[in-house]
Amino acid sequence: RRRRQMCIRGRAWGAREPQMVKAIAGTTLLLGAMIGLVAAVVGSVFARPALQGLGTPADVLDDAVAYAHVMMWTLPSLLVYVLFTQLLRGVSDTLSPLVALLVSTCIGLALTPALIRGWFGLPQMGIQSAAFAGLAGNLSAMAWLAWRLIRKGHPLAPDRAFFAAMRLDLEILGKVLRIGLPTGLQMVVLSLSELVILALVNQHGSQATAAYGAVTQIVNYVQFPALSIAITASILGAQAIGAGRIERIGPILRTGLLINIWLTGGLIVLGYLLSHWLLGLFLTDPSTRAMAEHLLHIMLWSLLVFGFQAVIGGIMRASGTVMVPVAIAIVCVVGVQLPMAYLLDARFGLQGVWMAFPLAYLGMLMLQTAYYTIIWQHQKIERLV
After folding, report:
1. Same domain as 45, residue 123
2. How far is residue 305's CA from residue 91's CA, in Å, rounded to a whole number?
3. In this structure, how many other beta carbons lie within 10 angstroms of the beta carbon of residue 367?
4. What pLDDT band is residue 23 in, cutting at 50, 70 and 90?
5. What is the four-CA torsion angle of 246, 326, 82, 356, rounded to 10 degrees?
6. Whole-prediction pTM value?
7. 46-72, pLDDT tens digit by residue?
8. How many whole angstroms separate alpha carbon 25 and alpha carbon 30?
9. Cβ pair 182, 329 in contact under 8 A
10. Is 173 inside a domain boundary?
11. Which residues of 181-203 are buried (b: 16+ CB within 10 A; e: fewer)?
């Protein structure tokens, strides 16, 4: 959903249509809040059965359910926050989302240990501390964004006109869903595949589950810049299309790939050099930390490949070409990653699960590149709004 509204909004901004941007923003945020609320209700009701179905070890099940309940109810505000920062990036305001991210991160980092330890008279929240701290960080960041945008008279400032635009415009909604439904299907498939991988990991015991969680945290921090580069390339591509400057697509793609090499590649190098210390922030047991470090080293390098394919796919999505990138991602996850995870797990044990990630990313890169060079480059590219 973030990418679909980003592309449509980028084309409108590139064509200098601020009222259309406001209408797209209103429809997108309202839809995001509604989806978040539904997900919160459904997720909180089925949290325990879902975790039991994933084979969550009994000794951590209650804590996992408690954490999941809080996380589910943070979804509405989290989705609105993420969507709104993407809206700002789509109109070339990258500073406000960056500062908002710093506000959210700093508050989350400060509140998490405070709630765990009960500092400053705060209640001890245990495993739920991180979820509550994250919620506080998101709400604080949104409040800061509202203050900043209103003070600057920004086109997306949450004023009376902005709230008046928060309605489900059927024409805009149709265009959003046209691009977004395939991407939504992709996210569902990817989420389900992650659950399958987690269920496979859980079979190796609670130590493996803890290692999986720690490795996932590190991977997310490296993967997020790669995704941000892809999103930025897609925004710039959409704006170029909206402005009728199709010749800028090639330079945007090359720049995105180059930035991915330096930024994502640099983080990968740091990840290898500091892996022992980084994992120590999440794990205290030496054997679990050693296990996690080995698993991290197996697949961390492949995030550079992931970044390459994300940039190429983002450029194609900017023109409304969504089905093929989505199909490629689904085929590589369902047809490569999951089968290879089971086969390699049977052959090499837990480390085999992580070997499947690079194979899937390499498949995505090869197929995305082939479609881009053979077919997409030769198509007629037009704006949608």
Report:
1. yes
2. 28
3. 20
4. confident
5. -120
6. 0.71
7. 888 888 887 777 777 888 888 888 888
8. 9
9. no
10. no
11. ebbeebbebeeebeebbbebbbe
Nearest to 98 by CA among 88, 111, 109, 83: 88
374 located within any domain: yes
- Identify whether 174 is part of a domain: no
CB 28, CB 90: distance < 8 Å:
no
Task: Please give the residue range of the domain that contains residue 262.
Answer: 179-385
Amino acid at 304: L
Whether 140 and 242 share a structural domain? no
Residues 15 and 116 both lie in one domain: yes
Q: Which two tokens stand for residue 359?
A: 């194979």
Distance CA 204, CA 189 (A): 24
Instruction: Say yes or no: 77 and 189 in one domain.
Output: no
9-33 mean pLDDT: 67
Of 139, 168, 197, the one marking the end of a domain is: 168
Q: Are residues 125 and 233 in the same domain?
A: no
Please say whether the beta carbons of 114 and 34 come within 8 A: no
**Would you say residue 383 has pLDDT above 50?**
yes
The answer to whether residues 225 and 267 touch, using CB atoms and an 8 Å cutoff, is yes
Please tell me whether residues 153 and 235 are part of one structural domain. Answer: no
- Mean of pLDDT values over 33-45: 87
Instruction: Among 148, 168, 188, give the residue marking a domain's end.
Output: 168
CA 293 remoteness from chain centre: 23
CA distance 321 to 117: 50
What is the count of structural domains for the chain? Answer: 2
Reduced 3-state DSSP string for the chain: CHHHHHHHHHHHHHCCCHHHHHHHHHHHHHHHHHHHHHHHHHHHHCHHHHHHHCCCCHHHHHHHHHHHHHHHHHHHHHHHHHHHHHHHHHCCCCHHHHHHHHHHHHHHHHHHHHHHHCHHHCCCCHHHHHHHHHHHHHHHHHHHHHHHHHHHCCCCCCCHHHHHCCCCCHHHHHHHHHHHHHHHHHHHHHHHHHHHHHHHHHCCCHHHHHHHHHHHHHHHHHHHHHHHHHHHHHHHHHHHHHCCCHHHHHHHHHHHHHHHHHHHHHHHHHHHHCHHHHHHCCCCCHHHHHHHHHHHHHHCCHHHHHHHHHHHHHHHHHCCCCHHHHHHHHHHHHHHHHHHHHHHHHHHCHHHHHHHHHHHHHHHHHHHHHHHHHCHHHCCCCCCC
User: Is the same domain home to 149 and 224?
Assistant: no
